[in-house]
Each structure stands twice: as structure tokens, then as C-alpha cells.
Amino acid sequence: MADVPHSNNNHVPVLFSFSVFSRPSSVPLGSGHEVLIQKFLSIYGYQIDIHRKFVIQLFSDEWGQYIDLPKGFVITEKCKLRLVPLQVDMTTLGNLSASTTVFFCCDMQERFRPAIKYFGDIISVGQRLTLGSAQRENVCGVLRFSLSLSPVTAASGARILGIPVIVSEQYPKGLGSTVQEMDLTGAKLVIPKTKFSMVLPEVEVALAEIPGLRSVVLFGVETHVCIQQTALDLIGRGLEVHIVADASSSRSMMDRMFALERLARTGITVTTSEAVLLQLVADKDHPKFKEIQNIIKASAPESGLLSKV
Questions:
Q1: Does the structure show a pLDDT above 70 at 46?
Q2: For residues 246 and 244, what is the distance between their CA atoms, to the nearest angstrom?
Q3: Active site residue 284
Q4: What is the pLDDT of residues 128-165, one digit of tens each?
Q5: Closest CA to 244 of 115, 230, 211
Q6: Catalytic position from the list 193, 233, 246, 255
Q7: Out of 183, 226, 246, 255, which one is annotated catalytic?
Q8: pTM, whole model, 2 decimals?
Q9: Coiled-coil intervals in this record (predicted)?
């Protein structure tokens, strides 16, 4: 907030947004396109790929949304601007890299267990991807965690590849905590929520701490509610989203399958846990390939994806 002017008639306060980030600053009165581009570069620097084309958009109170910056626009009053990429680098579209990826585990909670279709299967797949499994025991009123000795625990994808994990819990006071099979030790953030989308201010702060972030691997429940709304919020912030179909479900198979179909049509990648893990290593000679291979030696449960709606 130190960059925001206190009182200067020659400068105008502007909110500069890029991807999932927003930062208040100021520019001289009468600044045009070139000055604004330089300001975006000075604020976000290494996060902007200068080889891509961008457009600056202005938030319009009249229309209630961002519009392309009008020709000849200059800053005359306080406003909100965002920088939007015009084209996607086709060499990276749909690809995953461990250094630019975060995992989102959405609302895998105890109270959902009897209601969600194939819940046991998606927990099993979730363990492969994120933080492994844990066993909880209550000793003299103290809740203690201990890692299980299952092969999944020793070889969960996030632990092997050093990928940050963000976990949400929907109204945990009423719906309980994340299931005991999922070990949350080492998660970058575990956050309670009432909003359906995981994209909360605290989550956006956590994302801003990950340099070069490009992709979110998303899974959990329910596919047609929290998963869908999270995915749409993320792509609206310029991030690629990969939804793990065999680790995401709903109370209704109809809702689940139609949500996956809708999301695929918006440009979101609907994929499987094995595809994600192998994309992240990409090469048999990757130093972690053997450990990832140990995870997928036994096929993941199909979690009802091959059954009829």
C-alpha cells in the first residue's frame, strides 16, 4: 500500500490488475497507453511474458465490466485497469510443469462421505496426487497425526515433485474437517470457507507468492458447484485449469458429468490423475520418474466415469 499517493494533484490513483494479482499505485495525470504499459511492467516485471501480446482494459461503471481501453485514452481520474493476454502460447497450452503448477484440493470432507458418488475412489485418487494419507488418533483428548506406511503416502505426487497444495473446507463447523485419509501436513494453505469458489482473498495472496504460476490442478467436491465455480474464477484470472475427473465427484452422476462437459467446452482441461502425474515428469529420464511410476503401477479406480449417467 506504500505505493499509493496520499495527496498529489499531479498523480492519479489506479488499481493495476494482472492474472490473479491486483495492486494499487498511481500515474501522472494525462498518462496514455505507453506509460500504462511501462507501469504494468514495473509492477509485475518477471510475471509478464514480454513475447506475448496484451491489451489493457478499463473497468466501466456504465457496463459493470472491463472494456478494451478506448483509442487515445489518457488517465484523468481514479480508475481500475487490467492487463489481459491476447494470445496463448500454443507450445504450452495444456502442458504442465511442476515449477509453475499448484494443486487445489476442494472440500474433501467427512460429512460428504455418504452423499458423494464414488467418494472412496476419489479419496484414493486424491491421495496419489497431493499429500498422501494419514491416520488420526485421539490420545487423552489430543488429536495426533501419524503418516501411514502405504505406498501411496510414500509417493504422493505433490510431495515428490515439490508442488504446493491449497486445501479448502466448506463450512467445517457444520460439515466437518477434511477426511482423515488425507494428510494435510505440508499444505501451503488450509482454509475454511462459505463461498462455493475456492478463490478467496487469502487464496489469492497464497497464489501471488508462487513465482511464474501458470496452472492449477483442481479436484474434489462437488464437481458442479465448488469445482465448477472455482475453475471459472481461475480462468477468469488468466490461469490454466486442469480438472482431475477421477478425483472429482458430486451427489448426482448427472450433475457431475454435465459439469465436466460444460467445463471442457470453456477451454478447461478435463483430465485424469495418471495423465497429470506423467505430464509433470514428461520424460522417463526425469529424476523423479521412478517414484511417480510407483504411484501408477496399480491403476487408479475409475470412480464411476465409465458407467452410464
A1: no
A2: 6
A3: no
A4: 998 665 544 443 443 333 333 333 334 589 999 999 99
A5: 230
A6: 193
A7: 226
A8: 0.68
A9: none
